[in-house]
Amino acid sequence: MHRLAVLALTVCAVTLSGCAAWRAPSASKIDNTAAPHHDYLIGPGDSVNIIVWRNPEVSMSVPVRPDGKITTPLVEDLQASGKTSTQLARDIEKALAKFIQQPVVTVIVTGFTGTYDEQIRVIGQAARPQALAYRRDMSLMDVLIAVGGTTEFASGNRAVLIRKVDGKNQRLNVRLDDLLKDGDISANVTMRPGDVLVIPESFF
């Protein structure tokens, strides 16, 4: 009996030491530097206001179609998705040059969705799972505010950030519970264009 008691105590001690050594996954391996500066690229679903100087009859606001193209008076099926507002303005000037002498065009983006590969996607146990347009210096906290936080069934500290690095997808652990419930700012990481945040459901 004495030997069994010693063995049981030994097993308990090993188990407890293992539990003590375990730590929740951290975001320490995430590259937390700001994303390289880049201009906003127009995407399907955006709205663009096209202003042609001294030609109000061909100036108007149009949506970018799901195929990434726009149609305006005198210009049909012009590719807009993936371009900056300046690039699109120059392309419209070239197209209008057939009808208007030396057209001067300004393009103003008034509705922001962005290209699909630059959107931030939030799936799983978010209050409002959705795709968000990436903004410069966007943080994990900004994303959580936009989606209304997590549901009561979420397992926040098991959340995963899927990020493409050098053409390969990496799974990075993030600690949503620590950030939202404990106010641990060290868990607030910098987002990158194209990130996917997966919030799993709690086991119990």
How would you describe what is shown here?
The structure is a single chain. With 204 residues, the protein is an alpha+beta fold. Helices cover 22% and strands 25% of the residues. It has two domains: 47-111, wza like fold (2-Layer Sandwich); 119-204, Outer membrane lipoprotein wza domain like (Outer membrane lipoprotein wza fold like, Roll), CATH 3.10.560. It has a five-stranded mixed sheet, with no helix packed on it. β1 (47-52) and β2 (60-63) form a beta hairpin. The radius of gyration is 25 Å and the shape is elongated.
Distance between the termini: 38 Å
Number of strands: 10
Chain-averaged pLDDT: 87
Give the DSSP E fraction (strand runs of 2 or more residues). Answer: 15-25%
Sequence of strands across the biggest β-sheet: 7-6-10-8-9
Oligomeric description of these chains: single chain
Low-confidence stretches: 1-28
Give a quick precis of the structure.
The protein is of the alpha+beta class and 204 residues long. It has four helices and ten strands; from the N terminus they run αββββαβββαββαβ.
Topology (elements, then pairings):
Layout: H1 2-21, E1 47-52, E2 60-63, E3 69-72, E4 75-79, H2 85-96, E5 105-111, E6 120-124, E7 130-132, H3 140-146, E8 160-165, E9 168-173, H4 176-180, E10 196-199
Parallel strand pairs: 6-10
Antiparallel strand pairs: 1-2, 1-5, 3-4, 6-7, 8-9, 8-10
Short descriptors:
about 200 residues, alpha+beta, wza like fold, Outer membrane lipoprotein wza fold like, 5-stranded mixed beta sheet, 3-stranded antiparallel beta sheet, 4 helices, about 20% helix, about 25% strand, elongated, disordered N terminus
